[in-house]
Amino acid sequence: MNSYFSDIDYQIIKQIKLAQSRILVAVAWFTNTDIGKEIINKKGIDIEILVDDNKINRESENLIAIIREGIEVTFVKDLNEKYYQMHNKFCTIDNAIVVTGSYNWTYSSKSNDENITIINDQINAALYAHEFRRIKNLKFPDDGFSISQEERKEIVDLIYNGLKELLRANIDNFEKKLICEWSNEKVKNKIRIVNERSRNILQSMSGHLAVYNELISKYGLQFYTLASENEKIEARDKFLKKDLGKLDDDLRLGLQYFKVFAIKRLLQDYAKFLKDNNDWDKTQRVLKVVKFISDEKNEIGKEINISFL
To answer: What is the DSSP string of 272-296?
Structure first.
């Protein structure tokens, strides 16, 4: 963890340059074109930006340029809160680094006393990513659990194309668990969005029994009047961070689950080829690939407790 009180835009740009797969930005104002240009330079990786819905941001040439490049910018306003303002100033890089502090991404901030802290920690990055998703959901509310047909298709298509490339690259040497262990950050980021959304809705629906379980054990059903405000705050904070250490396991299970659908598509492709093909040598090569893919599918089934019989 490192903290900075000067040359802050330089430090922010430095972190953005390091990004390889994902950038999430939530800042109240974003008019600094130096930072904006570096964001544009990263076009092609997964980038989402949240800013407060205000006149300065709406008219910002910086944000207009970013949007013109096809990068997603969401102007956030909570219609249920009259005086609401999206006042955060944080960024996560590659699901591992957090940049946070008082510094808005504007030129005027350079003349203020400001600070940022850079935290290299996956659990903290996950916590910020979930908060990012909660705020974005103010603009695009949904039931939190469902994955749309469009999302499902996008994830399966990415895996399907990735596995096709993997098989082509290793056609002469199919090692066991080649498909089982295949991974792709763009695919994982799509699954992360679904997981972040689901976790937030689960937490918002959880009642007092889940949030204040330890206080109920200590004080009984009168816990809300008997427990101190500090105890209740600590309980809410503990609940918010519960199971964050298991996110990687959940992510892998999600990837393997979608991988099964992509594998089914591959096998359907090969089945069609075998039906239409009359070349003996090609048929034997394809049968070898089909057997390998089927064995890999069964290995994945064991991992996620699904039988394909």
So the answer is: HHHHH---HHHHHHHHHHHHHHHHH
Which pair of structure tokens corresponds to residue 7? Answer: 């040359």
The token pair at 158 is 């990415």
Helices marked H in 140-246:
149-169, 185-205, 208-211, 213-219, 223-226, 229-240
Average pLDDT of 112-139? 93
Q: How far, in Å, CA of 230 to CA of 211, rounded?
A: 14
Q: Which two tokens stand for residue 81?
A: 């809160």
Q: Is 108 helix (H, G, I), strand (E, B) or coil?
A: helix
Distance set, CA 202 to CA 151, 184, 205, 212 (Å): 20, 27, 5, 15
> Taking the CB of residue 265, how many other CB atoms lie within 10 A of it?
15
**What's the pLDDT at 205?**
67
- Using DSSP's 3-state secondary structure scheme, residue 62 falls into helix
Q: What is the mean pLDDT of residues 107-130?
A: 94
Is 0.90 surpassed by the pTM of this model?
no
Q: Are 50 and 135 in contact (CB under 8 A)?
A: yes
Q: The tokens of 183 are what?
A: 């991974």
Each residue's pLDDT tens digit, 175-218: 999 999 999 999 999 999 988 888 877 777 666 667 888 888 88
